[in-house]
């Protein structure tokens, strides 16, 4: 196991009816900006619960944060927060809303051009305090300090992290997910699955606890993912899905182990250029990435095949191939397509995708730093 330091300051408030607990965790004199995506939190009653819990506090609502939150939209929220003298942010939505709120919180305290937080990785030393009410289990943003933001005009999708951008708390009420459309549930399952894979499927470092924890989460997703589509009001299923997605990226399973994230970097370029859902890009890239890089991931792929998919027969190469096929099949059972052609993207786009990776400095990706631009090109071609 590698050396590590693990710290996560976010308080989790889990269970049905817990939105009411906001009153105990938002400062009593706070001036609150509620950030949200579309209108679903109005129609499903979540916004009303939030507003009731805030009581007499001054609050304002900024809605319209996109599924891939854009710099342009978020800067409108920054302007509103300044106009209203906001001193607390409350993200009510899924990972995109929470990611966007992290950027708003950082931008409000940043001395300089806020896009530099992403483009130049300018350090974020302070941020406006914020919490979240999670309504879509997927990204783990409710319990980590990372954020991914797109710049519409530049065609960029970049990330930042800061110790200042952990949520103070996150409310996880599984009943808020009941009204989600199947596409969002399926995307959430795929997103969480690939988050785990990026931290698990690298190379062995004798981290038995992290490996078993990751495998348990993967097995849970293979079980509850299809159930969540079939039984949208099954509280136990939605509760397990919500908590699994949070644990997938709260830092715990990534402590003391090598991490990859090349699949995410290649996926970001697909979203930026073609507007695909984040999870769709991961479903496209991961099986191709594993196929192209199967030799460098050989030992963990064999472990993954046995422990997650119960594949124990055949040669090593046959077991690895079967595990990759099982992964692709799981995504497709969740109704998330896994080929570029499924989204009407042809191979002519690959040059542009690789050029964007080069522009963003993504030339030595992966746990070994050996995912060069040429390897990335091979992955895109394999995914076609």
UniProtKB/TrEMBL annotation:
Entry-linked InterPro entries: ADH_Fe/GldA, ADH_Fe_C, ADH_Fe_CS, BDH-like
Recorded family membership: Belongs to the iron-containing alcohol dehydrogenase family.
Residue intervals of the Fe-containing alcohol dehydrogenase-like C-terminal domain: 186-356
Keyword Zinc included in the entry's annotation: no
Entry protein name: Iron-containing alcohol dehydrogenase
Ranges where the Alcohol dehydrogenase iron-type/glycerol dehydrogenase GldA domain occurs: 9-174
Top-rank taxon: Bacteria
GO molecular function, one term: butanol dehydrogenase (NAD+) activity
Cofactor(s) named in the record: Fe cation
UniProt entry tagged with the keyword Magnesium: no
GO cellular component, as recorded: cytosol
Organism: Caballeronia ptereochthonis
Keywords for this protein: Oxidoreductase
